[in-house]
């Protein structure tokens, strides 16, 4: 059952008073997949069936395969009529019935008279473009033809399930007016170094983000970049996945119902490999020494972070264990503008590595590329040459906070980076699992890759950017029938049907895993009180 805010009616939302939202969604899904009408087209020598029959009369000389009669409803063109079946049946049964009818003498064709519905358009205030779509593009990454991820038809298939859990392993969480506290699970703070934690202690059961700012005088690791303001990165990443949708407030999250498991690993000067590896295991529901067990194992784990070097044995083992436990692990390709083979965990096995393109479809200048990238999604970029009027900087609209060090007022931010392309893929993976919770992590990746759209610009190709651009609508359709999608991709020589990240190196140098902040500092758009 899906839990959504209401039933969409012609580019808006209609809340049906007195009916639980989940029940309304289930009823609509049932109606979508059933019919009680059939369209039948007769051949020339049998067109007498439609000459004199009146509405609600039994059609003469026409019976269903089980012998029952059907009622005439209305005439169509080309010797076709619409008939009323004795009962409402599933579309699958109706298709089988239609095939049997079409085999009868005098019938040219038969097909179910299926139902159509208006496409879901969230009413969130920042979803659609403003009056000047160039300057105020709204959440362009969800719907624009060039670089968008084709979200509206995906929402028509599923808006998510409350049984799905998405872990965001990041800087932690800060509440916002557009986040639903009821969907946020009890996470954990895995930062073991009290200095880096910035909250007065080491590991604890509070994943709240106290801010990751660092004073220029702080003794961080030599040559590390010092950020004198907090990024609120974990909240921004989480908002792409699950900001409250269709609530007439701020932005629309991709998944309307999944629950968020916030797992804090990044603080002052980034975070350590050992903390991140422990967090990945714990998020997947596996035991970690000295930490209470996670009673809400994640179905999807989002890692919008990166560090230099090859994938170490320690982190690869953690990822393998998480995938073995049934979690889909999605990783940002990183924002160093280089080869992803030099960036971890994007170069690990058993992860879905996501690169970035700009709004115009070109490869984002900051995005890492290479054969380890599985697919791309829109992450925004600064156009070249710069044109602040006709082609201004663009990015992904997220939830943020006005606090420069500690949390302050709620804000929106437009941010660029592969952190947010990974979040889009994580959210679509969660929606795929709401369609079929039994599909494996490998199948999720294979379907995502097999259903990508072609690159909109020659700056991306399969050697640098994976199989193509994330297509949410096609991915959810593929989740409903993976065999058909993967079989088609395999037969056509496409990117689907391959195993998880086969052939990626798993070498052994340890390193300090740090948030890839290059190109991610927020540009604040607006604050609504």
Descriptive report:
The chain is of the alpha/beta class. It has three domains: 1-32, no CATH class; 36-112, no CATH class; 160-442 and 500-526, Peptidase S8/S53 domain (Rossmann fold). Helices cover 23% and strands 18% of the residues. The protein has twelve helices and 19 strands. The protein has a seven-stranded parallel beta sheet with strand order 9-10-8-11-13-15-16, sandwiched between helices. Strands 4-5-6-3-7 form a five-stranded antiparallel beta sheet. It has a three-stranded antiparallel beta sheet with strand order 17-18-19. Helix 6 (233-242) runs parallel beside helix 9 (418-435), helix 9 (418-435) runs parallel beside helix 11 (472-480) and helix 11 crosses helix 12. The longest helix has 18 residues, at 418-435. It is elongated, with a radius of gyration of 26 Å. The two termini are 35 Å apart.
| Global shape | elongated
What's the tally of helices?
12
**Oligomer description:** single chain
> What do the pLDDT scores average to?
84
- Name the strands of the widest sheet in spatial order: 9-10-8-11-13-15-16
How much strand content do the residues show? 15-25%
- CATH top-level class of the largest domain: Alpha Beta
**What gyration radius follows from the Cα positions, in whole Å?**
26 Å
> What is the name of the CATH topology of the largest domain?
Rossmann fold
Work out the helicity level: 10-25%
- The stretches of 5 or more residues where confidence is low (pLDDT under 50) are 1-29, 490-529
> SS-based structural class?
alpha/beta
Number of strands: 19
């Amino acid at each position: 059952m899906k839990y959504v805010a209401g039933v969409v009616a012609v580019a808006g939302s209609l809340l049906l008073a007195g009916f639980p939202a989940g029940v309304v969604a289930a009823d609509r899904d049932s109606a979508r997949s059933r019919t009680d009408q059939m369209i039948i087209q007769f051949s020339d020598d049998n067109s007498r069936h439609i000459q004199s029959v009146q509405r609600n009369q039994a059609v003469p000389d026409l019976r269903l395969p089980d012998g029952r009669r059907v009622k005439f409803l209305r005439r169509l063109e080309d010797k076709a009529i619409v008939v009323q079946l004795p009962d409402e049946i599933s579309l699958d049964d109706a298709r089988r019935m239609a095939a049997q009818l079409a085999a009868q003498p005098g019938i040219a064709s038969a097909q179910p008279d299926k139902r159509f519905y208006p496409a879901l358009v969230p009413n969130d205030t920042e979803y659609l473009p403003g009056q000047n779509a160039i300057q105020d593009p709204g959440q362009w990454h969800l719907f624009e033809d060039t670089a968008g991820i084709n979200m509206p038809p995906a929402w028509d298939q599923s808006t998510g399930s409350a049984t799905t859990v998405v872990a965001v392993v990041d800087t932690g969480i800060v509440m916002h007016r557009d986040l639903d506290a009821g969907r946020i699970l009890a996470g954990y703070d895995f930062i073991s170094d009290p200095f880096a934690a910035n909250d007065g202690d080491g590991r604890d059961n509070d994943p709240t983000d106290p801010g990751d700012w660092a004073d220029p005088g702080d003794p961080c690791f030599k040559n590390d970049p010092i950020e004198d303001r907090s990024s609120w990165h974990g909240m921004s990443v989480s908002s792409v996945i699950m900001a409250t949708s269709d609530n007439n407030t701020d932005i629309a999250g991709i998944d309307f119902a999944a629950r968020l498991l916030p797992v804090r690993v990044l603080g002052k000067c980034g975070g350590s490999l050992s903390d991140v590896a422990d967090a990945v295991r714990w998020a997947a529901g596996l035991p970690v020494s000295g930490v209470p067990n996670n009673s809400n194992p994640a179905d999807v784990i989002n890692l919008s972070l990166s560090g230099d070097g090859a994938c170490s044995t320690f982190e690869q083992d953690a990822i393998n264990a998480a995938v073995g436990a049934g979690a889909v692990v999605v990783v940002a390709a990183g924002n160093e503008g280089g080869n992803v083979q030099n960036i971890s965990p994007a170069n690990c096995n058993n992860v879905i590595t996501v690169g970035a393109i700009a709004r115009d479809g070109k490869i984002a200048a900051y995005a890492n590329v290479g054969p380890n990238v599985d697919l791309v999604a829109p992450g925004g970029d600064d156009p070249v040459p710069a044109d602040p009027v006709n082609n201004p900087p663009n990015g992904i609209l997220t939830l943020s906070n006005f606090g420069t060090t500690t949390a302050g007022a709620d804000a929106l931010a437009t941010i660029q980076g592969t952190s947010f392309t990974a979040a889009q893929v994580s959210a679509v993976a969660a929606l795929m699992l709401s369609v079929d919770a039994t599909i494996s992590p490998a199948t999720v990746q294979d379907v995502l890759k097999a259903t990508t759209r072609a690159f909109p610009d020659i700056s991306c190709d399969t050697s640098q950017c994976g199989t193509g651009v994330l297509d949410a609508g096609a991915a959810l359709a593929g989740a409903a029938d993976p065999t058909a999608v993967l079989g088609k991709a395999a037969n056509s020589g496409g990117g689907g049907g391959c195993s998880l990240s086969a052939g990626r190196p798993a070498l052994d140098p340890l390193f300090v895993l740090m948030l890839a902040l290059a190109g991610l500092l927020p540009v604040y758009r607006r604050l609504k009180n």
